[in-house]
Write a structure and sequence with these properties.
By secondary structure, the chain is of the alpha/beta class. Helix content is 50%, strand content 12%. Strands 1, 2, 3, 4, 5, 6, 7 and 8 form an 8-stranded mixed sheet that branches. β3, α3 and β4 form a beta-alpha-beta unit. α2 crosses α11. The radius of gyration is 22 Å and the shape is globular.
C-alpha cells in the first residue's frame, strides 16, 4: 500500500511542523541514491525514526527491537510500516541467531536499491551523549559488499533543544556518505568493521552535542546556564559545541539531570496564547492524563506527545468546529474558527519564544 504509506509520511511531516517550533534539516552533501544504510543517534524513542524518515525523500526501512513484533497483528502493521525486527541479548540468547536472518533480509533490501535506518547505539538515552555504536549496521554493510552490492553509510545526527517539550526545536543533519570498501587481503573483517564504526561514530559526534558521561550532570547544568540561543540551528549546534568544549568538569557523578526548556509565565498575559490555551484545553488535558497514568518510561514522553497529539488535536478541531457551526449556523464563521485553531497554535509558540 505505497499510496497510503506516502500519505502517512506526508501527514507526519505536517504534524512535525506543528509539534516543533523549528524543524531544520541540514545536508552536508546530497543524499545518495541506491543502497544506503542511515545510522542515527538515538535520544527520543520512535520520534527519532519519524524525524529521519520525514527529513529525506528516501523511504527507509526501520530496524526496531524484536519484542514489539510479538503479536501477529503487530507484525503485519509494522511490516507494512517498513519495519524489521532486531534481536538483542535481553530478548534471549537463542533469539540472537535470528539476527543472521535479519542481516540477510537487509542485504536483499539493499540489493533492490532500498535504504535502511538503524539506531546503532542500541537503545535511546535522554542525554546529549553519543554512546558506543553496536556493530550491526557494519555487519549489514559488510554482508552486502560480499555480494557485490555497493553500499554507502550515511550518518544522521539528531539534536534536540528539549526532548519532552512540544514547541521545542530540532536539527536533523545528514552527514557525508561513507563508502564501504571490499575488505583488503591484509585487513580482516573485524578490522574493517571497527573502522566503519569509528568513522561513523566520529561523523555522528560532529553533528550533535556530545557531553562526556563522566561528569554529565555538572557539565550539562553549566552548559544550560551559559547557553545563548541562535536562530539558525546549525549555528546553534556549532556554538553549543564550542561552549561545552570550554567548560571544566567538576568531580561529580550524578547523571540524572533531564534536559528541559524554560517556560515563560508571562505568556499567559498574551491574548494569542490565551486563545490557544482555551481552545486546546481538552486534548491537552487528555494527553496529560495519559502521560501521567500510562507512561512508565519517561523517555517516551516526547514521542507519545507527538503521536497522541497528531491524532487528538485534529479530532478535537473537527468536534469543536462542529459545535461552533451548530451554534452559529454559519459555514463562514465555522471555517474561520477552524482556520484560527492551528494558526493560534503556531502564533502562540512564536510569540512565547521571543
Amino acid at each position: 500500500m505505497p499510496g497510503l504509506y506516502s500519505f502517512l509520511k506526508s501527514y507526519c511531516r505536517i504534524a512535525l511542523w506543528f509539534y516543533f517550533r523549528k524543524w531544520q534539516v541540514h545536508r552536508h552533501e546530497q543524499t545518495p541514491s541506491g543502497p544506503v544504510v542511515f545510522v542515527a543517534n538515538h535520544q527520543n524513542a520512535f520520534l527519532d525514526a519519524v524525524l529521519v524518515g520525514c527529513s529525506t525523500s528516501r523511504h527507509p526501512w526501520f530496524l526496531a527491537r524484536a519484542n514489539v513484533f510479538q503479536k501477529p497483528w503487530a507484525r503485519v502493521v509494522l511490516t507494512w510500516l517498513k519495519m524489521r525486527p532486531v534481536f538483542r541479548f535481553r530478548d534471549g540468547f537463542s533469539t540472537l541467531r535470528k539476527n543472521d536472518e535479519m542481516i540477510e533480509g537487509c542485504v536483499d533490501l539493499l540489493r533492490q536499491g532500498e535504504s535502511i535506518l538503524i539506531f546503532a547505539e542500541g537503545n535511546h538515552d535522554h542525554r546529549w551523549h553519543l554512546r558506543p555504536l553496536q556493530k550491526g549496521f557494519a555487519r549489514i554493510a559488510q554482508a552486502a559488499v560480499k555480494k557485490n552490492i555497493v553500499v554507502k553509510i550515511v550518518p544522521v545526527g539528531l539534536q534536540y533543544d528539549s526532548l519532552n517539550q512540544a514547541g521545542s526545536r530540532v536539527l536533523v543533519s545528514f552527514g557525508k556518505a561513507i563508502s564501504v570498501a571490499v575488505t583488503r587481503p591484509t585487513q580482516n573483517e573485524k578490522e574493517q568493521i571497527d573502522l566503519l564504526i569509528a568513522q561513523t561514530s566520529a561523523s555522528l559526534q560532529s553533528m550533535m552535542l556530545h557531553i562526556e558521561a563522566t561528569h554529565y550532570a555538572h557539565d550539562a547544568h553549566l552548559f544550560l546556564q551559559n547557553r545563548k540561543l541562535k536562530t539558525d540551528l546549525v549555528e546553534q549546534l556549532q556554538a553549543d559545541q564550542q561552549l561545552i568544549s570550554t567548560l571544566t568538569s567538576a568531580n561529580q557523578t550524578d547523571n540524572s539531570i533531564w534536559i528541559t526548556s524554560t517556560h515563560n509565565n508571562l505568556r499567559w498575559l498574551n491574548p494569542i496564547f490565551l486563545y490557544y490555551a482555551v481552545n486546546h484545553a481538552l486534548p491537552r488535558a487528555i494527553l496529560r492524563w495519559i502521560l501521567k497514568n500510562k507512561v512508565t518510561d519517561e523517555q517516551f514522553i516526547g514521542s507519545l506527545k507527538f503521536a497522541i497529539g497528531m491524532l487528538l488535536v485534529p479530532l478535537f478541531y473537527l468536534l469543536q468546529t462542529g459545535v461552533i457551526y451548530s451554534l452559529s449556523h454559519s459555514p463562514a464563521i465555522a471555517l474561520i474558527y477552524l482556520i484560527s485553531l492551528p494558526a493560534s497554535l503556531l502564533l502562540a509558540r512564536s510569540t512565547a519564544a521571543r
